[in-house]
């Protein structure tokens, strides 16, 4: 008999619940009198949607507005979506503060100094508790709950306290830092205890999983931590009453979907148009990033400036298109980063451009998915050069969008993707001379060699797509070893994840 528990309602019948900071929907308030829900497509949602559909699924997350007022009803096809409200203060303290000015920089090598603030921590605690309550209310008896990312690291333990019957997975999308960095965090033990509420903790890379296991050994001496690598699982933490598995599950993209888009006639026509507009004979370099200090946009611009200054490229023969998507704009480090980048673009165009021909096209905007695919198709060189990145989906999207085998990928060693995409041209973005050399090598790459590399990269991305990622995580969460057959034909393993 199913006994009522705190936070549960009569409607709590979902078999599979995703808990993420954001819903894959947002409220479009362009018309303030008639706000409307719109879909925010992305890799995570395309991987999880089939599972949400075939099992009684639900997704709990913030809808992206702090209006506080009542939301309009969700469209019929989206009734599995459950908005978790945030107040204006929580947005500032939990989201901009603790999540993005404490955890984000700390977990990215402290590229900028993290701020530690007690009131942000309190807000993080309160919001995590609310997410745990929503998840507890949605989950049916014995359901599977998959918690996503650094904003919600306390949810696994909070949820377990409310609902010991559910199976809990946690996946971290950003890097997990070495213990000596993590230990700076004043609330380090609470975060580790929060994560250990899960049955399976997934990281992007084996290195992140190893960092976490080492940390647990240091912080919780009584516990038995064993390293027992088997497929995706790298180790286990034996708690008094249960076991937590720790593994690496590199995320990926909807490769088939992107390839279809890239092959569509409107996208191909737009690619040709972009090439004509930028100059048929010019080589096109492309960067696509959220405007974040971890993405290395500034270093990339400086390397390009170096090439121009040395005469290894000119505005007549080369152009760099940089899409910088607006992100976290109220946070000081982000505002300063934007100012630095825009000043650098002005400087480069001022020094090396001429009327009608500038070397850098900088767009501080979000473009739609088709435009993005067309840009990927137009690029001779894709520059993905973060200083630190959990994975980096842009690198994998570029590869998926090049069925013509054209274009070369310059990829930072410090992106998680570099561990898989070893046939890219790898670069240390901190090394200005090497950066310029690799850029020049990519611009001058022999076509046959480029096609060979692209074929290998594509083989990898198509085999290890986002469906493979979701199914291998869920297979381990349900007791498997994590070795799921890969490739487009191997998609839904619903028997495995049921
Ligand atoms: C975190 C981790 C990890 C960007 N501009 C536009 C646009 N995008 C899309 C890209 C890509 C996504 O945003 C960015 O993904 P990344 O992986 O590059 O970076 P983060 O946002 O930092 O993501 C990262 C990821 O989580 C997943 O686990 O890989 O390491 O930091 O999909 O295409 N999309 C459209 N217009 C744009 O202007 N349509």
From TrEMBL:
Pfam families given in the database record: Glyco_transf_20
Domain of life according to the entry: Bacteria
One Gene Ontology molecular-function label: alpha,alpha-trehalose-phosphate synthase (UDP-forming) activity
InterPro entries: Glyco_trans_20
Gene Ontology biological-process entries: trehalose biosynthetic process
Family in the record: Belongs to the glycosyltransferase 20 family.
PANTHER family from the UniProt entry: BCDNA.GH08860, TREHALOSE-6-PHOSPHATE SYNTHASE
Protein name: Trehalose-6-phosphate synthase
Organism whose genome encodes this protein: Streptomyces pluripotens
């Amino acid at each position: 008999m199913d006994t009522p528990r705190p936070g549960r309602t009569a409607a709590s019948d979902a078999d599979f619940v995703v808990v993420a900071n954001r819903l894959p929907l947002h409220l479009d308030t362009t018309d303030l009198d008639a706000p409307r829900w719109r879909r925010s497509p992305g890799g995570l949602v395309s991987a999880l949607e089939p599972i949400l559909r075939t099992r009684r699924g639900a997704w709990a997350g913030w809808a992206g507005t702090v209006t506080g007022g009542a939301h309009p009803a969700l469209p019929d096809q989206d009734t599995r979506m459950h908005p978790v409200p945030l107040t204006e203060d929580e947005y500032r303290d939990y989201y901009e503060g603790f999540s993005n000015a404490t955890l984000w920089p700390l977990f990215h090598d402290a590229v900028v100094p993290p701020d530690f603030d007690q009131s942000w921590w309190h807000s993080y605690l309160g919001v995590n508790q609310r997410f745990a309550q929503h998840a507890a209310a949605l989950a049916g008896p014995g359901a599977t709950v998959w918690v996503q990312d650094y904003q919600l690291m306390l949810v696994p333990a909070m949820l377990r306290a409310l609902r010991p019957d559910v199976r809990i997975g946690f996946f971290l999308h950003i890097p997990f830092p070495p213990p000596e960095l993590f230990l700076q965090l004043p609330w380090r033990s609470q975060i580790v205890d929060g994560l250990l509420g899960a049955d399976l903790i997934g990281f992007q890379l084996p290195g992140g999983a190893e960092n976490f296991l080492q940390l647990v050994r240091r912080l919780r001496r009584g516990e038995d931590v064993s390293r027992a690598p088997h497929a995706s699982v790298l180790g286990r933490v034996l708690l008094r009453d249960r076991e937590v598995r720790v593994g690496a599950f590199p995320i990926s993209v909807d490769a088939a979907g992107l390839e279809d888009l890239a092959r569509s006639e409107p996208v191909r026509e737009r690619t040709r148009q972009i090439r004509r507009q930028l100059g048929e004979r010019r080589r096109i370099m492309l960067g696509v990033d959220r405007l974040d200090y971890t993405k290395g946009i500034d270093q990339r611009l400086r390397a390009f400036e170096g090439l121009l200054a040395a005469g290894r490229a000119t505005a007549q023969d080369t152009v760099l298109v940089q899409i910088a998507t607006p992100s976290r704009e109220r946070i000081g480090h982000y505002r300063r980063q934007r100012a630095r980048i825009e000043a650098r673009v002005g400087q480069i165009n001022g020094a090396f451009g001429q009327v009608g021909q500038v070397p850098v096209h900088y767009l501080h905007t979000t473009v739609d998915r088709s435009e993005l695919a067309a840009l990927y198709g137009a690029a001779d060189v894709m520059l993905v050069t973060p200083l630190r990145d959990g994975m980096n989906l842009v690198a994998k999207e570029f590869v998926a969008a090049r069925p013509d085998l054209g274009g070369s990928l310059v990829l930072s060693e410090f992106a998680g993707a570099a561990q898989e995409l070893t046939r890219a041209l790898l670069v240390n973005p901190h090394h200005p001379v090497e950066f310029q050399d690799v850029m020049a090598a990519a611009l001058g790459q022999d076509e046959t060699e480029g096609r060979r590399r692209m074929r290998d990269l594509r083989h990898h991305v198509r085999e290890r797509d986002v469906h493979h990622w979701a199914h291998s995580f869920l297979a381990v969460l349900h007791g498997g070893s994590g070795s799921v057959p890969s490739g487009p034909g191997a998609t839904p393993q619903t028997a495995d994840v049921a």
